[in-house]
Predict the 3D structure of the following.
Amino acid sequence: MESNILVIYTGGTIGMIKDPVTGALAPFNFDALYKHIPVLQNFNCKIDSYCFDPLIDSSNMNPEFWVRLAGVIEENYESYDGFVVLHGTDTMAYTASVLSFMLENLNKPVVFTGSQLPMGVLRTDGRENFINAIEIAGAYIDETPVVPEVSICFENRLMRGNRTNKFNAEHFNAFLSGNYPLLAQVGVHIRYSHQHILKPNFKKLKVHRNLDTNVAILKLFPGITENVVKSILSISGLKALILETYGAGNAPTDKWFVNALSDGIKNGITIFNVTQCKGGSVEMGKYETSVQLESIGVVGGYDITTESAIGKIMYLLGEGYTGEKLKQLLQTPLRGELTIE
């Protein structure tokens, strides 16, 4: 079967190539894709491209752009077998995470990739990442997609999008999936871990466009003051707070700290406990330093990443969930984003 793949270029390092006249880096011309990467002609697939105009640096990524990106996928969903999204690495994990929630009943591959060096640089990692992403997006067995979920393909590894974070700004191996196994390993062959990949449900795609940005992140650190905590919790319109705690979900036991969080919860703010660690899980009540958080109504986030927590909360708030139902859904795996032990 010949696959139809749509490459969506949002911006970022991977899409830059050196202008032969000026020597400056300029956006890649995807209309000449086969000229620049002739090996793609060997794949049993047809590749089209869609470029955002203007292109966006990943540091400028925002919910408005996420809605546009989801819209492009929705508009082209029936015409293509898979999608490759070229994206800057700095916020790729955020975009991949939130998109997994926005695209309900996704039954086709949406593979994110990027690079640490531009495509036009001699030692670029972009060429290999791009080729791997194309092959994965077009991989079907018995007319069923092999990876029908949002993923990130980087440095010969395929990871679930809402399980990743960028942990290195220099090495080609820039992304980590600390709490979930790889979906595939790319070597001489692409070896898929089928048992870890979401299964298609063959329902109609439903795109959620309402994202509520009345959220904040509070990262704990030794010496954090009462003024800092209270100032965050007193933000006008704040609906949810991601609390980045230590280790297995631990936090200071100072009376002022617990009281501040308790007052915030009483005022309708949902507080989601997420560990600062790149691996491991929040276990509310395991240590004395998290018992009080549990007793005042802080919601444990298990092994969810901060990037995924942000996307999930924006999505759930945008859908109108509040109170106990919001808490319940935050602790329920919706797109494979967390593991309940």
